[in-house]
Amino acid sequence: NKDMLKDLYNENRGRVETTYTAASWTSFQTAMDNAKAVLENDAATQAEVNEATAALQSAVDGLVNISTLEYVLNIANGHVEVGDVDKLVPSAKEMFNKVLASAQAVYDDPDATQEQVDTAWKTLMYAIQAVGFVPGDKTELIDLVAEAKALDLNAYEDGAEKDAFTAALQAAEDLIADDDAMELDIDAAYN
Q1: Are 133 and 92 in contact (CB under 8 A)?
Q2: What is the C-alpha to C-alpha distance for residues 94 and 121, in angstroms, rounded to an integer?
Q3: What angle do CA 89, 91, 93 make, to 5 degrees?
Q4: How far is CA 143 from CA 140, 149, 182, in A?
Q5: 136-171 pLDDT tens trace
Q6: Which end of the chain is more exposed for a tag (fewer CB within 10 A), N or C?
Q7: Nearest-5° angle of CA 174, CA 178, CA 183?
Q8: In this structure, is the dihedral angle defined by the CA atoms of residues 108, 110, 114 and 116, taken in order, positive or negative?
Q9: Residue 95, SS3 per DSSP
Q10: C-alpha closest to that of 171 among 146, 151, 152, 145
């Protein structure tokens, strides 16, 4: 009885090679070719049919789908092409480029596993969220710090208010030196 093999073969005939890794597709195509030969062989034994069915099912289960990774890579590369990544704060830019390179390596690996592919596209989606992490404008904060540093603090009494002012001034100076400072951080320090 070849019904199970025939059904499995027909269910999988429409698969597209470019959707899968090369190694998993090669195994699948070999199993499909073998299944077709068994289906066309009127003298095939039940053992041969069962073996072909098991091999095809195993190959189907072993297909590594890279279509989602390819889609996410296209989105990420689009951000690179339009210059979005160049505008990121340094740590976000470094992280994005590292994750993109890693995802591309998984995509290019013909022997990648489904777990590696899934981890790559999920991590890359996380990195794409960093595209909004652009540096803030520090111009007004720099001017305010310059004005604050020009004050003669000796003219003021020691105490909690002076200590708070000194701490806020130091925090603002640290923020100015921080290449990863974003607008929200700068606004908070300015106020």
Answers
A1: yes
A2: 17
A3: 65
A4: 5, 10, 17
A5: 999 999 999 999 999 999 999 999 999 999 999 999
A6: C
A7: 100
A8: negative
A9: helix
A10: 145
Write the CB contacts of 39 (distance below 8 Å, at least 6 apart in sequence). Answer: 2, 5, 6, 9
At 98, which amino acid appears? Answer: K
3-state secondary structure 13-67: CCCCHHHECHHHHHHHHHHHHHHHHHHHCCCCCHHHHHHHHHHHHHHHHCCCECH
Contact 64, 26 (CB under 8 A): no
Percent of the chain with pLDDT over 90: 94
Could you give the dihedral angle defined by the CA atoms of residues 171, 176, 179 and 183, in that order, rounded to the nearest 10 degrees? 90
Asked if 64 and 117 touch (Cβ cutoff 8 Å), the reply is: yes
Token readout for 156 is: 């003021």
25-64 tens-digit pLDDT = 999 999 999 999 999 999 999 999 999 999 999 999 999 9
Q: 159 Cβ partners below 8 Å, 6+ apart?
A: none
Length of the chain counted residue by residue: 191
Q: Describe the chain by its helix, strand, coil percentages, rounded to 5.
A: 75, 0, 20
Q: Which two tokens stand for residue 155?
A: 């003219």
Pair 17, 63: CB distance under 8 Å:
no
- The residues pairing with 135 across neighbouring beta strands, listed in sequence order, are 182
